[in-house]
Every structure is written in structure tokens, then in C-alpha cells.
Amino acid sequence: MLSPTPVSLFCALLLCLPLAVVFTINTTTTPPTSSSDATGKNDKPRNINTKTPIFSAPPPPPMIVPEDDKSLFRVAARVNPKPSPPGAAKKLAFMFLTTTPLAFAPLWEIYFNSTHPNLYNIYIHADPTSHYDSPFQGVFSNRVIPSKPTHRFTPTLISAARRLLSHALLHDPSNYMFTLLSSSCIPLHSFNFTYETLIRSKKSFIEILKNQPGIEARWAARGEEVMLPEVTLESCRIGSQFWTLTRKHARLVVRDERLWSKFKLPCLHWDTCYPEENYFPTLLSMRDPRGCIPATLTHVDWRGRSDGHPHTYEPAEVGPELILTLRSDRPRYGDEETNGSVPSSTQRHDPFLFARKFSPDSIQPLMSIASDVIFKD
Fold first, then answer.
1. pTM value?
2. How many other CB atoms sit within 10 Å of the CB of residue 370?
3. DSSP string covering 75-99, please?
4. Is 56 inside a domain boundary?
5. Where is this region: Disordered (predicted)?
């Protein structure tokens, strides 16, 4: 074998030099660019004092969401019961169930734009048979989930809420609390106040009332003893259809088949059929009463009403006094035996965070007091 000469070694070195330069250039690393560098905005939300660092985790691989409800609920029930990834900021999931355009979108825009977008998600269930004057815009753009028709006095409202919960569970593993709202709801406080109130809670806020007038008629609305044996009259509960659930309870709702097999049956007596006001409080009362604060944080005025509709606030009623009055009211708590782990109702005064029912044309007086009253805590 011929030994390499100094000249041949020098020529080989010259031939390899360009490759070494190219390799060095292509493998040079640069420090990751923070979202603050990319957007010119600070990652820390305004006015929110949180010890949890706020960052965007790498997006998960695309998930094929089933179109049929049964498969959708089954897949959603298998998500991680704890918010993830570890160290990420917990998020609030705002779920709007509507059959009309969102008349209060301008007010909600101010609400959501006052904070960091990494602290919340929005989901909309919009009845596809209804007419919407214009597409959902701003923070509501592209937030409508696959929706189906909804009707009063039917279990379709339960299905819509379960659909919203399923999509919220599957969409973002950081969703921690899940709030159901209607198109007639408004916020009573700033986003920061709402976030701090809900994130520090380890329990759901859902009205769970026992021995209410008319409970027997509601229980028998599908026929005498049809609800047995899954739901006895003694275990049936009533409560507001608007609630805030923990991630654990959101999974519990979408996973349920036992109670749903009864509540999904059509009613024979429509005038006593309000399944969305019975299913959720009954389910959670039976499965995890100690994990609930038995009250809703959405204010509503039922005084003097007997037609199944709460009082609707008209423009002439809207002003600072109304907002302050709604804030100061105390939620109605379920009986203490419904929730043995919660202090006596006389010791609690959780703040109302939302309110209904407001007429669409009350948006102007609401906007006029938004900065100085509604969002001033």
C-alpha cells in the first residue's frame, strides 16, 4: 500500500474544507424567540397576579373529532383529568350556547381583550337552524363547534352542553374550569377578577336544590316511574342550567351513560319538562356532591315569574345601580346535607360573576358603563 505524502494530505484537506464550512453554518443554533419578541407584547397578563408562568405549549397533533355524539363523548371522557402540560397557566373555557347572534359581543370583546389570550378559550354552540345576521367576529371568530338544533322542553339542551364540554376537553389540555353561558348573559366583573375567583377554586359551582316545588312533576314528566331505577324521586335535584364545572366534573358529565339513558327520553308532559335544569345537578349530586359548591355564579331574577322565563332587563333599567345590586346579591345555596364538605351556607357569599337575562337593545347603556362600572373591581 502506498503511504500518503504531505502533498496528497494537503490536497485532501482543501477538498474537505468547503463541506466543513457548510456543515458549521447549517448546524449553528440560535436561542428560541419568545412570544414577547415575536409580538412586541409582554407574556404576563395585565393586572393578573399569578405565580404560574404563562407560555404556549407546542400544539398537539391534529385530532380527528368524531361527528356523532356517542363517539365524541367517549373520546372526550378519556382525556387527562388534570390540566397539562405541567407548569402551564390554567385556562378558563367559556362556552356559549345560543340560538341567536351574540348581541353582547362588543362587551365581551372588551372583557377578553383586557387580558392575555393564553388564559382562556371560547366555544360556541350555535343552532344551525337559526338565522345569524353576520358571522361571529373578533374573539368569537372560528369558535363555533359542530352544532345541532336545540329546543326547549327537550334533552337537546343537555346534548348541546355536553357537546361544548367535549370539544373544550379535546381542544386544549390546559382548560381547567368550564363555564356555560347564554347569549343573554353579561359579565359582572373584569376578566381578572373572574379568573382569580375560578382558578383558585377546586370545586364546581352548580346550583343543587332539593325538595323544590314541582320536583315530583318534573321527575314523572316522562311517565310514572320511567326514571327508575337509575333516578329515584329522592335523588332528583333542580338547579340553574348555567354553571361552572371543574375539569374532573366535565369529564364526569361526558362520560355518563347511566343517567343520560333516562334524561334523554322525551317528555310526555312538556309543561313540566326542563331536563337541563335537572340532569346536571342530579348527576353531580349523586356522583360527587362534596366536589361542588351548590350555587350558580350566574345571577338571574325569578321573582314573580311563573311562565318559565326570568325577568329580562330592558335598557331603561340598566345603570350603575343595577350592576352594583346584582354584584351584592347573595347566591342561593343548596341544603347543607347535599354537600357535607362545604361550610354552612350562612358562612358563604361567593360573588356573582355573570348575570342574565338582558334584552339585546340594552347593549348601548351597558357599553356606556363598561369601563367605569362593570370592569372596575
1. 0.83
2. 18
3. HHTTS-SS-SSTTSPPEEEEEEEES
4. no
5. 30-61
